[in-house]
């Protein structure tokens, strides 16, 4: 049973936020509202009239449209073509459609140009095209599934501006998000979902993120801050002049140089697609550097294959756990073996040791609080957060020296997030070197000892996590600022700065600074 | 945990049972459409299976199907489609027959030599496709189909009297093998003889299971099949794995013709069975790539083959069996995918339900651990 006793009332002309942990049942609810899934019982009313949807087409006919988390646009078609595709009957595919698009775009301030190829658009523009697509089909109620997950702070502000426009024109928006701060800033009403049912509503003006989180998980909101510095001067990972080329000789990564010391978390900020994936691949050995060197402590590992790197203590929390971290249809204990098949307790020499692996899987499940009825269920049947906890447990169990943590808490609920942060902190205290890549800037700033910004395959800026704000980091991520980012004092900054503990973190940042400049 | 085990058995059995039921039903429709009795052919064929001489024939035939299907299954386990089993086993049987006719060692050496020859020939032939895929990115499907055709041409060439061929009447043969290379059968009295190679086929099945499920290599192979990207990230070298799997699959294919070659014909002639490699694909599919499943599937196929000639004597066409084989393969593909998806969804729901009911592994330990952790977070 995914959902039961759900009560949700969305008023006309408002933004209604739906928050809840992963696996709480938000997606199922949205699928029901959008006609992708049929409810077993209960009713849906639109404008007071009871309706029943058997497909998204029915939902659209009733004025309900959905903007998915993953965009559904054809790259090699223009915006006009993408919008008209599938709804050619509405306004044709020529001038009438173009005029309609311009009209909608102007009315809601979307700024969409109909004749641009979608592949030339950035993420934020694509999202606006998706919104326009839904409006074009006559939607009066929009469902946005985690719309801010792919945006930098400036883009989020622009999106919220758009949402306010929509609202003022009498449209309703259902806004699904993990990020409680955003929810509070944009929503008029909030409904909290937990364990498949609605557990409460909140009025944004009278609620703090902490209270909202308590409603979500029944516990305090975790914060990613690291308390004390554990950075040592012993380099664990040293990357020098790394360059990686695409097939045509175009540089995907160029001039990448950095050092991560034992006990240090180096945070890498950047808009997705700026070389993070390639850097991870180069570090784990899936792609081999065209020039430059990678060294693990004293050994050069540039030419090592993936397996050797993993055996020698490179842990890997992949950015896409379904593609790179799990065998979805295999039982949990086989997933525990994945990536460490040559190591104890999984193998004795040439032979697998299923008993020991199963035993150890039980340990991981308990220690890392993976919520599962057993270790023989498939990985696919766990929620995203629990899958991630299993991966973190697996990687930590082999005592890595260097950990690649790519979006370690993406799609993970608040409770699991706190645990994963704790485990990274714990290991860092014991001397682990971590490369943290994340789209969640609060996480990056809170967990990292050093921050770098990657843009277009190059490290273009560095910053001190103790003083930098997400907005300042965001401008470097779009390529607008380079070099050492200095925090500029603005009246609002004390509130933001208070999140970290500048007094403790500052000396360590100073100690790191010459290293960074030497690049 | 027992519940999930039972679940898995149910899922494993549901697919083939549904497929077989559908195939039987559709075949009956074909029979009705052609104005025949839709039930009698089955009773006739079931009756055949009770005769001991037919049973021996079925087992002998099944041993070849079994080996060929294992070869296909190794490829399937890592998403490689070796359609070339047919060419590989024929070429391997021919080379083994030639070696058997020209080398005369004591049986203790001769038999291993012949088996090794077949293994290597099969591996060599599939290895060509493997190397092409790894170095040039040629699809193994295309390469192995082409190699089948080339194998036929090579066999025709080797049959030339000026090469290794010996003409016996109108028949091309490779000459009779030396007797030290004949593998004695298991005497079943009047029913005939079960090929000695049946035992090796069983051992192969066991070996297949052990290698896949109990060795590091097997895990890597299965991981590659389940998710190429995850396997690469786990440290599997994808190219080496493709080549190894291709070689292994070819080596096993090489053995598929040996039961009859070493146990009965002792020469590679025009009468040598063909098409076993293609049948092996359907059998591996039906057997879900599991050694036991394949054994049942191979026996089923052999039964359809060996029991169907009887139909001709009762006014039915024996091709009914071929129609059935085809329908089974079709039904299998559809029903397995349906059952797989249904199973995954069902398990997801059940895991959700179990968790909601509080059946969490180690539930007694974790809440308290959780609490201290939370306090720690708050304390900071």
Please report which band the strand proportion of chain A falls in: under 5%, 5-15%, 15-25%, 25-35%, 35-45% or over 45%.
15-25%
Radius of gyration of chain A: 24 Å
Number of domains of chain B: 2
* Coarse structural class of chain A: alpha/beta
Class based on secondary structure composition and strand pairing of chain B: mainly alpha
CATH topology of the largest domain in chain A: Rossmann fold
The value of Rg of chain B in angstroms is 25 Å
Question: How many individual β-strands of chain B?
Answer: 4
| Spatial order of strands in the largest sheet of chain B | 1-2
Q: In which range does the helix fraction of chain A lie?
A: 25-40%
Taken together, the total number of domains of chain A comes to 2
CATH superfamily of the largest domain in chain A: P-loop containing nucleotide triphosphate hydrolases
GO molecular function (chain B): transmembrane transporter activity
Protein name (chain B): ABC transporter permease
Transmembrane segments (chain B): 9-34, 54-76, 88-105, 111-132, 141-160, 194-212, 242-262, 320-339
GO cellular component, one term (chain B): plasma membrane
């Amino acid at each position: 049973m995914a959902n039961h006793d759900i009560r949700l009332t969305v008023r006309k002309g408002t933004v209604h936020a739906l928050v809840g942990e992963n696996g709480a049942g938000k997606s199922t609810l949205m699928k029901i509202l959008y006609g992708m899934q049929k409810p077993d019982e209960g009713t849906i009313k639109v404008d007071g009239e009871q309706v029943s949807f058997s497909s998204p087409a029915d939902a659209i006919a009733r004025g309900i449209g959905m903007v998915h988390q993953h965009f559904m646009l054809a790259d090699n078609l223009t915006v006009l073509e993408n919008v008209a595709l599938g709804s050619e009957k509405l306004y044709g595919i020529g001038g009438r459609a173009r005029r309609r698009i311009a009209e909608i775009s102007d009315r809601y301030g979307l700024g969409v140009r109909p004749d641009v190829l979608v592949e030339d658009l950035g993420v934020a523009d694509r999202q606006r095209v998706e919104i326009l697509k839904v409006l074009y089909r006559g939607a009066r109620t929009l469902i946005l599934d985690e719309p801010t997950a792919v945006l930098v702070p400036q883009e989020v502000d622009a999106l919220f501006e758009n949402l306010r426009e929509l609202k003022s024109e009498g449209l309703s928006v259902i806004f699904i998000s993990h990020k409680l701060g955003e929810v509070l800033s944009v929503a008029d009403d909030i409904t909290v979902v937990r364990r498949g049912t609605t557990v409460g509503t909140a009025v944004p003006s009278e609620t703090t993120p902490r209270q909202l989180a308590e409603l979500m998980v029944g516990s305090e909101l975790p914060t990613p801050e690291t308390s004390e510095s554990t950075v040592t001067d012993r380099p664990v990972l040293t990357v020098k002049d790394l360059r990686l080329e695409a097939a045509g000789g175009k540089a995907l990564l160029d001039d990448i140089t950095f050092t991560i010391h034992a006990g240090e978390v180096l945070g890498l900020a950047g808009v997705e697609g700026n070389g993070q994936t390639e850097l991870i691949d180069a570090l784990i050995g899936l792609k081999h550097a065209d020039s430059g060197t990678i060294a693990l402590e004293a050994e050069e590992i540039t030419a090592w294959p993936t397996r050797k790197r993993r055996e020698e203590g490179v842990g890997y929390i992949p950015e896409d756990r379904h593609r790179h971290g799990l065998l979805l249809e295999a039982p949990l204990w086989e997933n525990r073996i994945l990536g460490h098949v040559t190591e104890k307790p999984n193998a004795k020499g040439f032979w697998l040791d299923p008993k020991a692996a199963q035993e150890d899987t039980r340990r991981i499940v308990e220690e890392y609080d993976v919520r599962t009825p057993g270790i023989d269920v498939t990985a696919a049947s766990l929620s995203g957060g629990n899958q991630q906890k299993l991966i973190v447990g697996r990687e930590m169990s082999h005592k890595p020296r260097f950990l690649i943590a790519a979006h370690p808490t993406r799609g993970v609920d608040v409770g699991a997030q706190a645990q994963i942060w704790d485990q990274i902190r714990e290991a860092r205290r014991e001397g682990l070197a971590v490369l943290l890549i994340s789209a969640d800037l609060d996480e990056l700033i809170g967990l990292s000892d050093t921050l770098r910004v990657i843009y277009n395959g190059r490290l273009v800026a560095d910053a001190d996590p103790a003083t930098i704000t997400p907005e300042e980091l965001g401008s470097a991520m779009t390529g607008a600022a380079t070099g050492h980012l200095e925090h500029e004092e603005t009246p609002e900054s004390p509130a933001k700065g208070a999140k970290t503990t500048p007094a403790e973190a500052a000396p360590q940042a100073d100690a790191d600074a010459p290293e960074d400049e030497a690049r | 945990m027992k519940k999930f085990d039972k679940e898995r058995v149910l899922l494993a059995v549901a697919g083939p049972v549904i497929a077989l039921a559908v195939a039987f039903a559709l075949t009956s429709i074909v029979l009705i459409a052609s104005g025949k009795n839709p039930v009698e052919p089955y009773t006739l064929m079931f009756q055949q299976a009770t005769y001991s001489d037919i049973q021996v024939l079925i087992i002998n035939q099944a041993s070849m199907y079994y080996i060929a299907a294992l070869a296909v299954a190794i490829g399937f386990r890592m998403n490689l489609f070796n359609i070339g089993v047919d060419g590989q086993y024929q070429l391997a049987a021919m080379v083994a027959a030639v070696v058997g006719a020209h080398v005369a060692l004591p049986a203790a050496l001769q038999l291993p030599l012949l088996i090794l020859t077949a293994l290597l020939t099969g591996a060599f032939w599939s290895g060509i496709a493997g190397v092409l895929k790894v170095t040039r990115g040629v699809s193994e499907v295309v390469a192995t189909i082409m190699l089948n055709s080339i194998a036929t041409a090579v066999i025709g060439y080797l049959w030339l009297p000026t090469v290794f061929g010996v003409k016996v009447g109108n028949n091309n043969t490779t000459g009779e093998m030396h007797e030290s290379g004949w593998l004695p059968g298991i005497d079943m009295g009047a029913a005939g003889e079960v090929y000695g190679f049946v035992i090796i086929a069983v051992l192969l099945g066991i070996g297949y299971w052990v290698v896949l499920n109990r060795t590091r290599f097997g895990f890597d192979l299965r991981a590659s099949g389940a998710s190429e990207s995850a396997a690469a990230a786990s440290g599997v070298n994808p190219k080496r794995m493709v080549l190894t799997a291709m070689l292994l699959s070819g080596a096993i294919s090489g053995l598929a013709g040996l039961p009859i070659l070493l146990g009965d014909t002792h020469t590679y002639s025009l009468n040598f069975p063909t098409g076993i490699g293609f049948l092996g694909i359907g059998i591996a599919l039906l057997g879900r790539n599991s050694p036991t499943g394949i054994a049942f599937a191979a026996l089923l196929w052999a039964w359809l083959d060996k029991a169907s000639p009887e139909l001709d004597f009762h006014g039915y066409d024996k091709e009914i069996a071929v129609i059935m084989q085809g329908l089974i393969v079709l039904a299998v593909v559809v029903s397995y995918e349906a059952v797989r998806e249904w199973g995954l969804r069902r398990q997801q729901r059940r895991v959700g339900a179990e968790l909601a009911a509080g059946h969490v592994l180690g539930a007694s330990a974790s809440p308290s651990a959780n609490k201290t952790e939370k306090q720690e977070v708050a304390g900071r």
